[in-house]
Each structure stands twice: as C-alpha cells, then as structure tokens.
C-alpha cells in the first residue's frame, strides 16, 4: 500500500507553512505494510501541477492526502469539493495570477473528496481537535492540487482515495504576524496538527481496507 502526502512551501509573505513541517515530520513515519511518500510542493500553479502529476504516475499511490495552510481558519478543515477553476487573489510564488482559468479542459466542473470527511471530522473532535467540514478549498493552488488528484483518480483509477486538508496557522505565526490587539486570529499547535494528520492517515487506511 502506497500513500502520497503533500504539503506546501510558504507563500504570500509567510516565512513558514505548517504543512511543510508536518510533511517533514511524516517522512520517517513507519506504518506496517505502508510505504509513505512525501513532497513539499511549490506554491506555483504550473509547477505544482507538473510535479503532482509526475508523482502520481510514478508512484501510483492507493491513497493521497494533500495538506495546505488556510490562514484564519480555526479548525482542521476537511475539504468537501474541488472546483475546475483558478482565480487567484494573490500571485503565486512565481508571480502568476490566473483569473477565471480552467484547470482541466476535459474535467468535470467539480469533484468531491474521496475521504470519509464527516466521520473524520467527528473522530478528530472526539480526540479534542477542532475540526470542521469546509465547502470551499478556495481557488488558489490548494484547490488546484485537490482538483488534479481527484481528476487523476476519476480518469486513471488512482489514487483510489484522495482529499485535501487545510490547517490553521501555528501559534508562532500568529505571534509574529499579529502584534497588536483587536485582531482575533486562531491557531493550532504543531503537535495537535500533526496528531490530526496522523489520525486522518490511520482512518483512511482503515477505510481502504474495509471490504466493500
Ligand atoms: N495554502 C494555499 C496554497 C498553499 C497553501 O498552503 C491555498 O490555500 O491555496
């Protein structure tokens, strides 16, 4: 069984991206009968697309989980849907800012996550981890990555299970970025974020192994 886990480099003026740290922490994780592949993707529309497609074709993972930062969110967000659209509020890390551009000309308008998002959210909450279902992954590079993975799943049959998880800021990012009162910006510690992602991996593996 092969799992691909991706995160992102920092973007939009931030110095860190929690998902880069999470992915690096998972690099050496050992799970019986599971090969874990990790990648920190550039926040660059064209490069993230190329790198992801190459990795999916090379590895042919049964499961892929994609992680990104969503500044301002208060919980671990299980994304429900990816849209076939790029409409960037800010330029990517190489200055490209697509407006109303399709991701795949022959793709559906939208694809739904293949993760058991409701069960995962409930189980994370039972563990005391703030978690919600999100109905929009945005229209930036995270939505693009989620869309491409689901498109690939539909067209080629793998990854069989794939989805996207947005995480909030880390406390140190809030401390650094928001130094005056009056702004209420949520964060979740690295340890709790990592615990959440490990639980999501475990649940997705269990779901995968369930007889249909
Ligand atoms: N978050 C951005 C792109 C990279 C990341 O971590 C997003 O939500 O699209």
- Please identify, by name, the CATH architecture: 3-Layer(aba) Sandwich
Each distinct ligand:
pyroglutamic acid
- Regions with pLDDT < 50 over 5+ consecutive residues? none
Assign the CATH class.
Answer: Alpha Beta
Name of the CATH homologous superfamily: Peptidase C15, pyroglutamyl peptidase I-like
Task: Give the CA-CA distance, first to last residue.
Answer: 17 Å
What is the strand tally?
8
- The SS-based structural class is alpha/beta
**Strand coverage percent:** 15-25%
Main sheet overview: 6 strands, mixed
Can you describe what's shown?
The chain is an alpha/beta fold. The chain has one domain: Peptidase C15, pyroglutamyl peptidase I-like (Aminopeptidase), CATH 3.40.630.20. It is 36% helix and 20% strand. The protein is built from 6 helices and 8 strands. It has helices spanning 18-26, 45-59, 117-126, 141-156, 171-177, 190-209; strands spanning 2-8, 35-41, 63-69, 76-79, 81-83, 110-112, 131-134, 161-167. Strands 2-1-3-8-4-7 form a 6-stranded mixed beta sheet, sandwiched between helices. Helix 1 (18-26) packs across helix 6 and helix 2 (45-59) runs parallel beside helix 4 (141-156). Pyroglutamic acid (PCA) is lined by residues 8, 11, 17, 19, 43, 68-70, 138, 140-142.
